[in-house]
Amino acid sequence: MLESPTRRTLLTLPAALAATKAFAQAPAPSLVEAAKREGELMIYTASPASYIEALAKVFNARFPGVRMRTYSATAAPLLERFMADSKRGAVQADLVQTSDDMMQRLLAEKLIEPYDPASAAVIPPEYRALSPYALPDRLIENVVIYNVDMVTEEEIKLLQSWDGVVDPRFKGRIAVADPNVVGGWYNGFYMLWKSKGPEWFTKLAAVKPTIYSSNIPGVESVISGQHAVGLTIDPYASSYFANKAPIQTAWPEPTPIWFGYVALAKGAPHSNAAKLFLEWFFSEEGMLTWAKIYQCAVPRPGISDVRAFAHEPWFTGARQRFVLKPADLAKEGKLALADWNKAMKG
């Protein structure tokens, strides 16, 4: 039976923790003591629940006396809950972790506080578009997966380009995530709108994709054989591949690449505990732990590619990268989404 995408990660966490102890960067003792007095912290996250719970397990073991609690939802409902808490004056979250577009909305509403962990000083300036209010904790690629038992070699070649993805032979065979609720594809489809034009959405609509409210059911529909092809993000592609799913991954050119962010909530009830987490999280230990759990690249230099598929003979990675510019997304993202909705309803 196919295991959940994080089953393999959870089983290997003790080894991951042991491997990172040697180079852990100790936060200031005064911050540790202040965090222990608060006793806990809460993170609101758009990451899958099992991913963030695995991270919390490592953090809790590292800092006994500071319990990390988690709340996970897709990006749009997460934003709504966080903003509702803030408007009521009843902030529950100490940290919020979400996609670029959602983080920019929180920044515009002045709902996050500046904090730049000392451990994050090595993150390159080009990754710091939202610093010091929010820092990138993962680099995400919008990719295509395919069921190896349901596509031909010729079709695999087609999937190396976005024009090939919308070839008529894939009609009724593609799963996608809804950019209205899934932040990663709000980003991804924006970049495809930018690079391929709104007519690409029309071509996608013509092949009658099945639209899901999150990435995971779409991926699982490809694994089960309900669909031959799915548009997803590289962490899910790698995690399910690690658990023996019959899928491989293609990186159509140009491959959209964007960042996930984490920030300190304004009015955080456990701000010291939240700062302690951020200091640990952006250390070499924290970033390597997160890369293994999330199956993603991270912005800290020196962390190797630990994705499960990285050494497979079919692995290419992104050959032509299209890196998201947050300012452009803020200006044009809604225009792209409107064109998406028009194409899908047409």
Proportion of residues in β-strands: 15-25%
Number of structurally distinct domains: 2
Structural class category: alpha/beta
Number of contiguous helices: 14
CATH class of the largest domain: Alpha Beta
The sequence of SSEs as H and E is HHEHEHEHEEHHEHHEHEHEEHHEH
Give the rounded overall mean pLDDT: 92
Give the oligomeric state of the chains in this entry, treating copies of one chain as homo and distinct chains as hetero: single chain
Whole-Å distance between the termini?
Answer: 40 Å
Helix residue percentage:
40-55%
* CATH third-tier fold name of the largest domain: D-Maltodextrin-Binding Protein, domain 2
- Specify the biggest β-sheet: 11 strands, mixed
Q: Give the tally of β-strands.
A: 11
Radius of gyration equals: 20 Å
Shape: globular
Assigned CATH architecture of the largest domain: 3-Layer(aba) Sandwich
Query: CATH homologous superfamily of the largest domain?
Result: Periplasmic binding protein-like II
Low-confidence stretches: 1-23
Q: Can you characterise this structure?
A:
The longest helix has 20 residues, at about 325-345. Strands 1, 2, 3, 4, 5, 6, 7, 8, 9, 10 and 11 form an 11-stranded mixed sheet that branches. By secondary structure, this protein is an alpha/beta fold. The model is unreliable at about 1-25 (pLDDT under 50). The protein has 2 domains: about 5-140 and about 260-295, Periplasmic binding protein-like II (D-Maltodextrin-Binding Protein, domain 2), CATH 3.40.190; about 140-255 and about 310-345, Periplasmic binding protein-like II (D-Maltodextrin-Binding Protein, domain 2, 3-Layer(aba) Sandwich). About 45% of the residues lie in helices and about 20% in strands. It has helices at about 5-20, 30-40, 50-60, 75-85, 100-110, 155-160, 160-165, 185-195, 200-205, 215-225, 235-240, 270-280, 285-295, 325-345, and strands at about 40-45, 65-70, 95-100, 110-115, 135-145, 175, 210, 230-235, 245-250, 255-265, 320-325. Helix 1 packs antiparallel against helix 13 (about 285-295), helix 3 (about 50-60) runs antiparallel to helix 13 (about 285-295) and helix 8 (about 185-195) packs across helix 14 (about 325-345). The chain is globular.
